[in-house]
Amino acid sequence: MASGISTGGRCKEIAMFTLLFFMWLNILTICSGVEFKVGGNNGWIVPSSSKDDEFYNRWASNNRFKPNDILRFEYNMDSVLVVTKGEYEKCQSPDPLFFSNNGNTTYGLDRPGLFYFISGVSGHCDRGLKMIIKVLEPENPNPPQSANETTEPPKKSGAVLLKIGGAVSSINMIMFTLSFLRPFFM
User: Fold this and answer.
1) Are 101 and 78 spatial neighbours (Cβ–Cβ below 8 Å)?
2) Which pTM value belongs to this model?
3) I need a surface site. Which of 3, 23, 119, 120 has the fewest CB within 10 A?
4) For residues 109 and 96, what is the distance between their CA atoms, to the nearest angstrom?
5) What is each CA distance from 185 to 17, 147, 175, in whole angstroms?
6) pLDDT higher than threshold 70 for residue 179
7) How far apart are CA 124 and CA 73, in angstroms?
8) In this predicted structure, what is the pLDDT of residue 149?
9) β-pairing, 35-37 with 98-100?
10) Sequential DSSP letters for 99-155
């Protein structure tokens, strides 16, 4: 054993690395949202018949959206606008909240609530190229407290709470994981 590391020690290193890798992968999956291709295989196109003017709202109602999910709009010679409810109902917006016309647009759903999307091409929205997305509240939100309830102040301890949310970047997670692995490779 010229390397100075026994076979048992090497197996322990590999097992530790594998465990930490899968823990990191699990945390990363929890932190990131799901990407949805709007309209499925059809993409973001004007519905083929006037009977399909609710196509995108049916598509949206068949999916469950959460904060941090991403919508991918794929289209040709069109655009995507995020608008207010009133602009959605009128199918026009002089000043949209978001505009893109690059043919491959991603839009992040950053909060619970309703999002209104329309096409910016004249006549397309009126023919059904519009959609309402409802983003659900995160699971297990903290229950609201009433004014009559009292809570004890938190007790101080040596414990540290690590809250992992959508703002944690992949690089931070990699650096965090590598800080634990460093002793094994030094």
Assistant:
1) yes
2) 0.62
3) 3
4) 16
5) 10, 54, 15
6) no
7) 15
8) 52
9) unpaired
10) EE-SSEEEEE--SSEEEEEE--STTTTTTT-EEEEEEPPPSSPPPPPPTT---PPPP
Would you put residue 22 in left (φ > 0), alpha (ψ -120 to 50) or beta? Answer: alpha
C-alpha angle 129/132/133, rounded to 5°? 125
Q: What is the pLDDT of residues 2-30, one digit of tens each?
A: 555 566 667 777 766 666 665 555 555 45
Six-digit token string for 123: 């006549």
| Among the listed residues 141, 147, 92, 83, the one whose alpha carbon sits nearest the alpha carbon of residue 115 | 83
**Residue carrying structure tokens 């800080």:** 179
Taking only the tens place, the pLDDT of each residue in 34-78 is 999 999 999 999 998 877 889 999 999 999 999 999 999 999 999
Mean of the pLDDT values across residues 141-165? 46
Angle CA(162)–CA(166)–CA(172) in degrees, nearest 5? 65
